[in-house]
Amino acid sequence: MFQRIGADAFREDLTNTQALCEALGFPHRKFKSVHVGGTNGKGSVSHGMAAVLMKAGYKTGLYTSPHLKEFTERIKINGLEASQNFTMDFVERIKPTLEKINPSFFEITTVMAFDYFARENVDIAIVEVGLGGRLDSTNVITPAVSLITNISYDHQQQLGNTLEEIAFEKAGIIKPSVPIIVSERQSETEGVFLQQAKNRKSKITFASDHYQVSKTSSDTYQFSGDYNGTVKSDLQGNYQAKNIAAIYALTEELRQLGFNLRDEHFKEALTQVTSLTGLKGRWQQLGKSPLIIADAGHNEAGIRN
Predict the structure, then answer these.
(1) Which residues, listed in sequence order, are joined to residue 285 by a DSSP beta bridge?
(2) If residue 264 lies in a helix (H) or strand (E), which one and from where to where?
(3) What pTM was computed for the model?
(4) CB neighbour list of residue 40: distance below 8 Å, 6 or more residues apart
(5) How many C-alpha atoms does 244 have within 13 Å on its Cβ side?
(6) Domain boundaries in the chain?
(7) CA-closest candidate to residue 182, choices 36, 63, 304
(8) Which of 26, 29, 24, 68 has the alpha carbon at shortest distance from 47?
(9) What is the DSSP string of 99-136?
(10) What is the pLDDT along the chain (305 residues), one digit of tens a residue?
(11) How far apart are CA 185 and CA 123, in angstroms?
(12) Under a CB-based contact definition with an 8 Å cutoff, are residues 50 and 147 in contact?
């Protein structure tokens, strides 16, 4: 009843999300946050950064999409899913507003997460963009820092047919004077990010300029650049090297903003991302004989990498 899917769910503005937030007393303003966007890798980065914060002792909210099995996978605090009782209570509390504005499934879910994090007094929440960025329901937040992983072709119907057009939509999460990290330089898109950061007077950092990461074995990654050393991780797949560099760049930025995040928190968290956060479907081995691998890659770049 209270949902729209497909193209009909893509809104031209944030009016519904803002109305839902207002009805709940603006919960998204009651906790600190990190906003994570991009085409591929944002789920791994979101879970990895949540694990680092948890290891450092912060009560950490995590909002991601889509879910694989259960709806409550989308909304977690310290790796524990929101209860079904909370989700049902939430819908009852805002039912008059839902009936009035007829929001989409994702609009409802996003504000549900904000309400949960505010009620549970999280120290910080990692908020993953659903689709695009500029018009995504999550874009009502003003985070401590934002990160964009990379740009490739996906959802062209909503975001545009060129990498530059897609990058412009993703760059919509850059907020005035809020630091923005971009995981990697891409010749087609870096100009878009540089210009949008300049327009908003936001410090921009390309993680790949500072941290180079290569996978040296099934669970070992070698850093070079501004950080040198070897780290172990349960994040599988060669593509995770760039995501691990992004997680460290976020860790360093949050350190500069006053968060007590030490390198040992980063290293310990990387070995336990799946167990701490419940991350699934990233080069996940389901069986050995025959070998069965599950991965959430759903576009050409995600599969190639």
Answers:
(1) 293
(2) helix 263-270
(3) 0.89
(4) 149, 150, 152, 154, 239, 297, 299, 301, 302, 305
(5) 31
(6) 6-280
(7) 36
(8) 68
(9) HHH---HHHHHHHHHHHHHHHTT-SEEEEE-SSSSTT-
(10) 344 444 454 567 899 999 999 999 999 999 999 999 998 889 999 999 999 999 999 999 999 998 778 999 999 999 999 999 999 999 999 999 999 999 999 999 999 999 999 999 999 999 999 988 999 999 999 999 999 999 977 655 666 579 999 999 999 999 999 999 999 999 999 999 999 999 999 999 999 999 999 999 989 999 999 999 999 999 988 889 999 999 999 999 999 999 999 999 999 999 999 999 988 765 656 566 666 666 655 444 444 55
(11) 31
(12) no
Give the pair of three-digit tokens for residue 82. 């929101």
Domain 6-280: give its CATH architecture.
Answer: 3-Layer(aba) Sandwich (3.40)
CA 181 – CA 197 distance, rounded (Å): 10
Q: Hey, what are 280's tokens? A: 């699934």
List, as one string, the DSSP characters of 154-196: --HHHH-SSHHHHHHHHGGG--TT--EEESS--TTTHHHHHHH
Sign of the Cα torsion 59, 282, 17, 249 reads: positive
In this structure, the strands spanning 75-77 and 60-63 are: antiparallel
